[in-house]
# Entry
Amino acid sequence: MTTRENVVTSRLSKLMLNNAASGSGGVGGGGGGSAALQSPTSPGEQSQSELNQLKRDADPQFSRFADYFVICGLDLDTGLEPDRFAGDNLHCSPLDRAYKSKPLAHYPENVAWNPFDAHGICMLSLPQGLRFRTQKHNIEPRFHSFATTREDGKRCYGFSLVFYEEIRNRNICGAIHTLQSMFITELSNGQQTHSLTRVKQDGPVSRSLPRHFKVAGQAPQSAQSYYDINKDKLYVAKSISLICQAPYAFAAQMFLKNLYRCLPRQPGAGISLESYVYNILYEVMLPQPGKSIRVYLPPTEPHLPAIALILQRPLLATELPLLDFPLRLLFKYLGVECVIQLLTCVLLENQVLLRSTDYQRLMIVGECITSLLFPFVWPHVYAPILPAALHHFLDAPVPFVMGLHAECEAAHKIGSEAALCFVDIDKKHIQLPEELPVFPHKLDFMAEIGSVLDKFEVERDRDQEPSLRNGRASGGLGGGVGSAGSSGGGGPDAMISSCTLPTGLQAARRSKERFQQLQETVYTLSGSGSPGGGVVDYQPLIAHPSRIDHVPRIADFLRRKGGIRGTASPVGSPTVSLSSSPVGIYQDVDAVDATMPRRAEKQKLNPVDQYYQDLRINNSLREIFLNRFVHMFHAYEYFVIYPNQARDDWISNRETLQNFDKSSFLSDQPEHHRAFLSRFLESQMFATLIDNKILAMWEPQPDEQLLLFDQRVKLLRRRHGENMIAASSYEPCVVSQDSQQGFEKRLNCIDIEVTPPSEILSNRAAYFRSFPLLEKGVLNQECASSSSPADHHPAP
# Structure
């Protein structure tokens, strides 16, 4: 990384998360508090003292689920203040302007390993600033995640729920009304060059505005931007957030959403908000690598019991690192081809700008695409949610991955940059940099990904996807997708190039719907080759092993209809004869379409089960991406230039040393892959991997990601021979099932269980009209909600 790039990255990190101060009052990890932990799967009963000892031995920096619970919003003591970081917004209606938000409270006051950054956390918890709304707006709560990168390169994650509460303070309502009156007066006098809408002669007249003021037809939300103090209710944004070291996004989302639902708005059963917050801050532990833990989160209604959720962490020695954000949504938002194009841009360290109306979509795409880089790590500026205060970083001449809300003006201005990868998530559109090389084996890669998405029935745009036939990709792709990166690429008919069908089935081949119903099999014609006397061998698709049962069903149906003569063969390889009439065969295909039972509508999973299913999808897809890098660089060790000097001397001179024989490595690669590989070998990501490989000679504990990558390379060589230099053809992933078994074991055999939240207040309020500030006395330090060992019982 260049000096200039280091300066930019450092400035961004300082603005987004302040780590300068280290306050007192940190939360210690000792003191046998109330972390009621139970071990349901250990043999016999584990005593409470042993469980308390487990917590005392754990470093709280790495064992606690959350560091802070934060409430941000309008400070009534200071009143309305314009958000100076949002720029000049006087041309907007007061309801469209951003005002300054402040942290109203955070618990605990401070933790030693993660000093509280009031400005950075508030800026990302409410990235649009403090906004006002009326009942005419959509004021449903919205959840989003965010990430900050510290100066030491470590990421810190935040999770925020933004909701709107009614303003009953007459001074605030009067201030908004006064600002709006001034805005309309200036607008009417022509002193504003912009307005909440432009005045047009043919626009509809709004009765909420002066008679001569007209609303443009292309701005339907204009009337919403007017506040009538006598008729409208005024609402203001507020957020509740968790600041965490580990990105367990689903658990954080469920906690915040259900905590908001558990806010008592009328007297009734339930426990205090403080009890839920105390539980997540002090009692919930993170699982250790290779382990799982059952936690209890707030219910959807105050009177209901807590919701059980299993958190698990992969074993780093053999499994990919934790990814809690769903790759299912990445492919649903963008489609397979767009994801591969975006991955190519990130691998080549282009500037990447994401755009969406949903902050959570920005975060999902950013987190998922960077996780697919494994074993490589994105080393540059990373801000999947870029607040308005940091928009000037878009001008930085360094690689970055940043996300902008669609309402930001910068998101429209920068989209025309030629060297930028610009992704409009909502429109599923990607603007690529000029002369972007094709990812190696692109069509085969896309087809393998599509087969996994099909297995899990992931909904997505399939228009540009190739098919997988006997492990080879085929099919025409529009939008500039070439066949250079595929070993099996071809024209539009390549999808069924392995099929030699009787003449009467040519029309059926052109029917996309019928073909999709029969795409579970591959037809290869043998025998005399005549249309009436050929023999069809049904081979199950290796990409869809779960669908082999379709083959005998189709064969049996045609046999009963008289379209097949002969006896059935074993499942997966029946050999049958087709009717001599091409027309009759075509009619049989129609009959299959008409009478084959339709697949039952997919049953919708509950949120917890969908979360577990998303983790399975994540594992399967990530193994495919890792498999590509393993095949691409399975011989990289042969080209590493190891130093013949001491560690310190090498470190001081490594910027001037050649650590990898790039020219020799490229000479062994297929020619149509060299365009991509030659550029990737120059990236900071690849250089870091090679540096870690060399440092492993001296380090007692080498980089964990490198160890896993090297382990997978050894497995590949074991299958193909140690002297394997270049992969001759595309080979799908074959090891995902092994890592999947580890996940299923953790899901079914829980190592530790945390008791559900229990009441920690002697007297709790009956109800609230808005989300309140919580009791500091019980949340600023670890206390004993139920410290007596007699209160805890091992789980069955």
